Structure formats: C-alpha cells, structure tokens
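We modelled the chain as a single entity of 527 amino acids. Its sequence is:
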Amino acid sequence: MPQPRIMFYHDGRHPLIYMYEPPMRKEEYEAGVNELVGTPVEALMFCLGDGRTVLHDTKVGELWGHNVEKWPHLIFRRAHQNARDLIDEGHDPLRLICDRAHAKGMLVYPTLLVQQGRGDRSEDVRCSNFRFDNAHLEIGARGDVDTDFPGLTCLDFKHEEVREERFALIEETLNNYSVDGFELQLNYSPYYFHPDEVDAGREIMTAWIRRVYEAVKQSAGERELAIRIPASLEGCMQVGLDVRAWLQQGIVDVIIGQTFSGPELLDSTTDFRPLVAAAQGTNCRVHAAIQSHVDSDRLGEATIEMIRAAACNYWAQGVDGLYLAHWFGNWPYQASFYEKLRELPHPEIMAPKDKFYYVPTETGRYPKPVTEPGIAMTLPAALSVNNPTGMQFTISDDLPRWHGVGRVHEVLLRIRIMNTTEVDRMRFQLNGVDLPDSLRRKINEMYRMSAPRYRTGSGYWFIYRLDVKHWPQKGENTLQVTLLRREPDVIPQIYVRDVELEIKYLMGQNFHRGQDADLGPYDHSGL
C-alpha cells in the first residue's frame, strides 16, 4: 500500500451531513470524496461522527441521536435524520465513503474521536447512553478533581470497561469496512486519567495502543495505525501518552503532531523537530497538522501566502507529510481552496513565492486561544519600561539566495502595539540589530469605527519595509521590543498583540507584479 504524504481530515459533518436537506441522497454523501478528487490528497481521514455516537450502521456502538425524543438543536437533528435515512435505504454512510474513495484512487482512514466530555442528557444530544449511564467511569467521578479541570467529565482510561467500549468500535470498523488504516484522534480532549494517576496511566494507555495496533495489522497486514497527538512530547507525557514508548515498541505507523486543535488555528511557528527526532530509526512517519483558520480581525480563513509559510516551515523540519486538519471552513470549495492544495506537497515550488508569517495571538471566536498540554502562546506580550520583551518566529525563506537572482520584491515586518499613545517611545530590534525609524511607517488605529471582521482595542501599527541589511534570517528569528517611555497618566497595560512578516517575490528578475503601481494606471497584463 502506498504511504500517503498528504492526508485530509473530513469531520463527516460540517460540509456534508449538516448541509443537505433530508432525505440525503447517496450522490450527495459521496461529495465528501468527490470534492477532493484531482487534488494532491492521497488519504481521506473520515471522522466517525461524534466519537461517543457515530453516523454509520454500527452494531456495537450507538447511532447519533438514537436516544433523543425532543431535539433542542436542529442541525444535530438533521445529522441523525440523514444518517438514519441513508441506512434505511441500504446505504451505510461509511461504506459509501470507502467505496467511492477507492473508486477514485484515494485511501480511507476512519477517524475516531477517542475522548470527549459529557453534558446534561437533555442538551447533549450527540452523547451515548453508555456515557450517560456510566458517569462513575469519568475522571472526576470521585469528586476530588478541580471543577475547572478540562477533562472532568471525560472517560478515565484506567477502567477496563472504558477501554473495551472504545476498542469494540474500532474492531468493528476494521472487520466490516474496506479501510486502509485507522486514526485515533487523541488530541480532541487530550485528558485520559485522573491528574494524580497519570504516571500509572501511561503504561495502561501504551498497552491499549498496542492492542489497537495489533488489531489493525491482524485485520489486514498493509493497514496503518495513525495517531493524532499534541505536538509537544512533554505535553503528551503530562496527560498519559508516552509517545516515545510507542515509537520504540513499533506500535504506530504515523504520528500526527497538532497545535491549536480546539480553536483550529493555523500556526506556522509549531516546532515538530522533537517528534521527527524521536521517530528517527523507527518505521513511523511524522506528519504535521496544518490548519486553515486564522480568525483575525481582518481575515477568517488563511490566504495561500499564509498556507505556504506554514507548509514550508513544516517541510523544512523534516516531516514526512502534511495532515490537513479542519479545512472544511473553506466549504463550499472554490478555486482559491484548490489553489492552496495544489502546491502543498512541493516546498521547492513554494520557496520563491509570496509568504505571510505571523505569531499566533488573540482571535475573535477565541480571544484567548486554548493550547494543548506542553504548548504556550507568546502573544499577547506585556511591555514595561526598559524591560526588553522578546518574541520568536521561524521562516523557511532563503532570502540571500533569491535576492542574488533578483527575485525578492519586498519584505515587510508589522508589529501592533495595543494601548499605546502617540508620545510613547519604543525600540525595535530584529536579531539584535536596531530597526531604524527611516524604514518605519506608523499607523494610528487608536480608534476604529469598523473592521473587516471585529474591532480590537486601541493601538498603533509599526510597519517596517526592511532593507537587505535588516532582513530576517532563514530559521529562527527574535524580535525584541523595549518600551523606552510610557505616558505616566495612562492606566491600561501596553502590550504587543500582533507580529507579522510578509515576503513578496517577483516571478523573475525585473518582473512586474500584476497591476504594478510604478507602471501607472494602464493595463500591463500583456507585458
């Protein structure tokens, strides 16, 4: 079986079973595959519903919504209707996806959301009776866990009943469907044991992973086990996932590192090198999860320049492939979506093309984005007088190389400082070198009447059009901001909210850039 480099996560819900009016037709459900045909996507990672319940014809698990009489959520009701109608018509939804994908030369790895909390029975209509009837199997069941602990109502994997219930659903899928592998999504709610029992839990989880791996291999020798985890190995250890042991014991074929899984945010700064190093000398491949959502005050989904920046950073770290997570926010898919997909497997093609790097920061839907265990955000970063504040970012661009052949058009560094005034004074340094005022433009956004998506607080943009002497270097870079003077009668905390780097290229030496302003108002497309 070929080893896919580009995997695409399809949650089976948002761009599919939620969208179509009941009764959903076979051809409509097959759109989950059809929309990716002809792209570089080699493997479809297809989610099995909610994880606690599923959206296919299970005999050992529970169908989404089978236990609901009154629906407080119409879209969840629609998902149940469409799944039920397809099954009653003899069209098992998961079998439709498998058959259609194979007909079009695409691999299928069903994805199980292994862990998730539980809500109230009257509202949590995606939940299973197993979960409702077995609250004593939850991490917080003893009543000695802080109520703020995010895994409070998640299943405690120390219980054999929990591991058996999860395994039965996996085994059924492997035995009854023509799949090419299986994915365990362990990063959805990455909490598996009581906080005081994590050390003992690691061996329990490793044994369970081994059992799943053996089931995958026994069902068909070329099938693969893929596991999605927090990108930090230390963070994984903190929640009972001993990834190094899995690699050493050879019980996983593909490890997928991911950050910002909850807010689903694109992050070009993720460091996958520890995962790559841990997998060296093993038969396990490392994939980097790349997301598409930005959710800034100016932009919802990432531009192609942002996708290139993240993808090239990931390829430069030696990963074996990319895992496209949560790209369904682009649905219905238009030309711009397919344009992003086309270049992804080819870092050498993306190398001399425009890129837009940024450091993750506050967003609209998630003002304080949640990170995985072991991961921390660097922005926002508070400033205080005469106390230098540093922020790191990484780029993959070899600017001296492309400058040598006349391809670099412009390099722009943007820093947004919030709660600053017109008389505050700051010093900006990139890799220890002062950025001169002669390269800077300052933009006043202390007050905005409106914004493309949502309004942020008061602030100023400091934008540097960097010359060759002040360019960032390939690899890691450090931006340092020092507050030199602060207006004494101002109370709000001054802080760095945004750091962005935009690199623009020419198609060739002395080439134009579309409607180049230096050429005047005429149409030069034929030049």
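As a brief sanity check on the tokenised model: DSSP finds 15 helices and 18 strands in the chain. The chain has two domains: 6-112+159-185+201-226+242-358, 381-505.
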